[in-house]
Amino acid sequence: MDRTKRTYPLALLILKLSIHPYYTDCDVVIISAEIEMPRILSDAEIQQLLQEQKPLPPNWATKLRFRRKSQEAFDQRDCPVQGSKGHEFRLILRSNHLHPQDFSVLLVFKDADGTEYILRRHNGSHPSKHTNEYEKRHNLPNAELPICFHRHLATERYQGAGLRIDGYAERANDYNDIQTAQGAMVRDARLILPLNSQLSMLGDN
């Protein structure tokens, strides 16, 4: 796996500023430097990570059970998952208790250097429309989604364009609530339930 990071040079810049008539002009010099950015995951690597089997740990149900507090509308739970090839992942559930259809189920890949990448994000029907920014910039189809259940997919092209890795989304027709969204994630990401486990326990209050 190529773990090369991208570096972006900052050009040497001399900026002359006229501060005030009573003061002399001054030169501001920005010294050349490099900014280190996360590497780009290729589409092939993203698919390999998704296809890797991911057995959920024995205590997965407890970790993902919401602990709603009376004055908090939002809740988030997450569970670490070790892939069969040694990669580290996190399964994350987010819920809006005031608007049950506004939820997210995420699969996050944790790279060897600690950088995290969202590989899949199953969203509910939140109040605003979603814009696929890359498609909008290039006048491509599917640039805007209506208010609907939608699935965010990690793509190489969004990273290359400086956009969020999971910025691209498609309408989802295989789930209609947080429970069925979790079931879709199990299928999409090859999550393996422990023996005698029940999917319906995921995210239960």
Task: Report what the structure shows.
The protein is an alpha+beta fold and 205 residues long. The chain has two domains: 6-37, no CATH class; 43-201, no CATH class. 17% of the residues lie in helices and 34% in strands. The protein has helices at residues 43-51, 60-63, 133-137, 156-160, 178-189, and strands at 6-10, 13-17, 26-30, 33-37, 54-55, 74-82, 88-96, 103-110, 116-123, 130-131, 144-145, 150-153, 168-171, 191-192. The strands form five sheets. Strands 6-7-8-9-12-13 form a six-stranded antiparallel β-sheet, covered by helices on one side. A two-stranded antiparallel ribbon has the order 1-4. A two-stranded antiparallel sheet has the order 2-3. The radius of gyration is 22 Å and the shape is globular. Residues 7-33 have low confidence and may be disordered.
